[in-house]
Amino acid sequence: MFGPFLAAGLLLTGALFLGRVFARFHLPKVTGYLLAGLLFGPSLSELLGITPVIDRGTLHSLEFISRLGICLIMFSVGAHFSFQSLRQYGGKIIVVSLLEALITLLLVTLGVYGLGFSFVGALFLGIMALNTAPGATQMVIREYSSEGKLSDLMLVLIGLNNFLGIVFFVILFHFTISSEPPISLLLNLGGPIAAGFGAGVIVAFWEQRLSGIVERQVALLGIVILMIAATTYFGLNLLYASLVMGVTVINVSPHKKRLFNEIHSIDYPVYMLFFAIAGTHLQLSALPAMGVIGVGFILLRIVGKISGAFLGAKAAGCSPVIQNHLGIGMLCQAGIAIGLSSVLAQAAPNAGGLEIQNIVLAGVVVFEAIGPILTRIALMRAGEVTLIAILTGRAPVGILEGMHDLVNQFGTSLGISLSKNLKNPSEVPIKMVMRRHVDTIPEDLGFDQLLKTMGHSRYDRLPVVNDKKHLIGVIHYADIADVLFVEELRGLVVARDIAVPTLARLTENDTLEHALDVFRKYPHVSYLFVYSSKDGKSLAGVLRHNDVLSSHGSV
């Protein structure tokens, strides 16, 4: 009915509007983006028996945007596979990933098989249950500026889940359905690695020779688009290749942080349109057709993901915060599972392929509805999201205030003073902006273990607490230099011996204005530790300087 340009415009503006509506009710914006696509797309219209606003033919013309979006998403996920960062996890990441994947795979496969499905079909569903939508999870983390060990681990595990899911699918498909020669298996597994590695090396080399931000952004987008063309032409898996490209860049490029920050400054509109288009592909008609096996698949995947992540994190010695919340944040499922199920449906429509596709499509509708919300809850409970990030769903100005500003600016342009500027509230309590999840050091921790803890932390100063969780001081990385090279002291010194008093005694009910005064007094400090207002002794959280500054634009 509408051309691709009008369709893209409707989806983008509709996603923006519904995203803000959902944010107003403290729900993830990405759910609003998906709903915009569902409302404009053919799925809901066909169910209601009306003409769709955007038909399937028009959606096909927007396929390029979908490919670009998922490519950029997987590229960004690859940024969390820095070998230096992975070494800090040690074997933990492997233990968590393998246990979570194994438990999910076994639970779904055996459960669905027990419900009467064929074993091969159940195994395909078990493999597809591994896949987690990287885009929806990443968008929630990005929307709420979530930061911490859970956020980092979640993205690394999602990348590993999808890698394992794709590899297992290719192998099982080759030996059960495909009639291609053995060399095709090597091509399907090794081809995306070669394409992603080659594209990553080119980007890492070329971006060093470009001095302007815009030039580097154009170079990266150009290479990404060329890789999409190459994978399409040779029939390689785009998601797999994009992940490898991101992993290559983060480990090869000398300016990796700059490169990823620059692409993040322009990619958000593409992501919004990608999720709106993804919403148009949600098949509501698949829900009634999924049957008992479909319901079993959904429930078993939920149980498998949550229990697998919990047991994996526990076996790896992760903190209780990660054990209890990791699985809840990894339930989103979308494009990868849809793509794999469609391949199966086309190759074996009469051998259970279509039935598997219907089950997966129904599952995607459910998981895309609840997944982002549960991810938000997991990040909030883990203390990695600031309260102000959750509560700023309102527009920066109200309707009347916005009209006032328009009229006032027009008058200023004409050289006429029409009214005085309206003032915004300035005083906000620290607890609205601080981050509650903080790595702490027990006061009796030995020196060698202290070194290891600080080496794995994102901060160069860590709080020292006693057995009552009272904040007794702070250890700066520079403060341990005197002990580092004195072998006799290393066996005697514990954390309390090195701890120094905090620079300022901030409580969570103090105002941001007071916190800013402290930051002005100590310009070399980028964050401060905050005391609980209940007893004035316990550690409540950490307040970062840039969070304080950015909050003024959010309030």
Attribute tags:
single chain; 555 residues; mainly alpha; Na+/H+ antiporter like fold; CBS-domain; 2 domains; three-stranded mixed sheet; 6 strands
Question: Can you characterise this structure?
Answer:
By secondary structure, the chain is mainly α. It has two domains: 67-265 and 287-385, Na+/H+ antiporter like fold, CATH 1.20.1530.20; 430-554, CBS-domain (Roll). Helix content is 66%, strand content 5%. The protein has 28 helices and six strands. It has helices at 4-24, 29-40, 42-48, 56-61, 63-78, 83-89, 92-114, 119-130, 134-143, 149-176, 182-206, 213-234, 238-252, 256-264, 268-280, 286-289, 291-315, 320-325, 335-347, 349-381, 387-391, 399-413, 447-456, 481-484, 487-490, 495-498, 512-521, 545-554, and strands at 441-442, 461-465, 471-476, 506-507, 527-531, 539-544. The protein has a three-stranded mixed β-sheet with strand order 1-2-3. The protein has a three-stranded mixed β-sheet with strand order 4-5-6. The longest helix is centred in the middle third of the chain and has 33 residues, at 349-381. The radius of gyration is 26 Å and the shape is globular.
